[in-house]
Amino acid sequence: MGIIVQKFGGTSVGSVEKIHHVANRVILEKEKGNDVIVVVSAMGKTTDELVRLAGEMTSRPEKREMDMLLTTGEQMSMSLLAMALQNRGYKSTSLTGWQAGIRTEAVFSNARITEVKTNRVESLLNEGRVIVVAGFQGMDENGEITTLGRGGSDTTAVALAAAINAERCDIYTDVDGVYSTDPRYVTGARKLNGISYDEMLELANLGAGVLHPRAVEFAKNYGIKLTVRSSMEETEGTLIEEDAPMEEHLVVRGVAFDKDIVRMTVVGLENELTGFPAVFSILAENHIDVDIIIQSKLDTGKVNLSFSIKESSLDETLQILGRHKDEIGYQEIEHETNLSKVSIVGSGMVSNPGVAAQMFSVLAKHEIQVKMVSTSEIKVSVVVDSNEMIKAANAIHESFGLNRSAVEA
Ligand code: ASP
Ligand code: MG
Predict the structure, then answer these.
(1) Are 397 and 189 in contact (CB under 8 A)?
(2) Where along the chain is substrate bound (predicted)?
């Protein structure tokens, strides 16, 4: 029998009853003869509530203190679940992220895992214990507590699974799998039985909140079999693996959308050769995620550089670019808010030209203006006005034959 890593999200551990229910799911796996490591998120909306509390103290909390605060959420759930398991007669030990050997880079609020030291987890497993690990947290080389970014418990689970050579990593959540698009906004969204790592990675990066992108990255790099399934019902869920077969006649697997995009424009770059790399290395040094990049040449010979960022990075980006104005060499910075990104993802695109064209015609038919475009082998993204995001997503989802009724027919 192997080692199974189970991860339960915030909704799944949202109340006393739900934690008891999670204990049942854990016991079921344990009774099959497996060793079980459970990773938990904070209960319900605890993390949001802690963020709100911090805001009552200061409008600009230091990131270190935020991490100290937010990591307490997961510690509540881990100890409560361990108690519930002990109450059912199972040996169980809860561990914080650092006790479980999760080491990270020295970055607060969005650290990457650098190493997992598994000796403690392994020896506890050898004693027949169920290990409950607090997700979303680790420790850096200076002994500081760090967090892995919102939604990071998924990454804790997959990193542990990879380090300990687990047979499977099951992500239990409040939906029954990965959907072709967000069912809350698109009628006809349907559950996928399978999806490839690459497609899932694109969807996760594009804002499909069901999985933390770094978790998918880990799973891909280490070939971890990952499932997303419901913590409430006994259903199959979605299997994420290297090659997930594409349903016949489909080229697109899913449609993702993401609000709160800002288009930044660095107007009048004086020196294209030095200015272009300067902008992006300065942003990278400050951990600002830049997405779509467009460069346009002006009649004057100067260059405008546009790129998209998340709205949450706007203030910081403006400050940073302002501070480095002389070094970069530009006239001014402009920005446009209230934008959204809508994307299609599917490995079928590789061998089917015309997918982007079809997307643009659908948008044109619905009179939706496209402001920026980016493509990769298996993805096309467009930036549109936020007021048109849902309309665009619905139209595209239908046009590529992804609606539930279309596929079942
Ligand atoms: N509790 C953290 C959050 O809400 C981490 C997680 O749930 O994965 O973002
Ligand atoms: Mg999550």
Answers:
(1) yes
(2) 47, 74
Which pLDDT tens digit goes with each residue over 316-341? 999 999 999 999 999 999 999 999 99
Both tokens of residue 219?
């799973």
Residue 302, C-beta contacts closer than 8 angstroms, at least 6 positions apart? 268, 269, 270, 331
- The DSSP string of 131-177 is EEEETTEEE-TTS-EEE--TTTHHHHHHHHHHHTT-SEEEEEESSSS
Q: Give this prediction's pTM.
A: 0.87
Q: Which residues line ligand 1 (CB under 6 A)?
A: 9-10, 41-42, 47, 73, 135-136, 150-153
Q: Cα–Cα distance between 390 and 31 in angstroms, integer?
A: 45
pLDDT score for 246: 79
Ligand nearest to C-alpha 153 = 1
CA of 151 to the centre of ligand 1 (A): 4
Q: What pLDDT was estimated at residue 226?
A: 96
- Top mutation candidate among 153, 210, 212, 216 for ligand 1, by most atoms within 8 Å of CB: 153
Residues belonging to the binding site for substrate are: 47, 74
Which ligand 1 atom sits nearest the alpha carbon of residue 73?
A: 1
Across-strand partners of 33?
none
Ligand 1 atom nearest residue 10's Cα: 7
Domain spanning 3-174, CATH class = alpha beta
Whose C-alpha lies nearest to ligand 1, atom 5?
Answer: 151
8 A C-beta contact, residue 162 and residue 85: no
Domain ranges across the chain? 3-174
Confidence at residue 355, expressed as pLDDT on a 0 to 100 scale: 94
Span 339-353, pLDDT tens digits: 999 999 999 888 888
Q: Nearest ligand to the C-alpha of residue 41?
A: 1
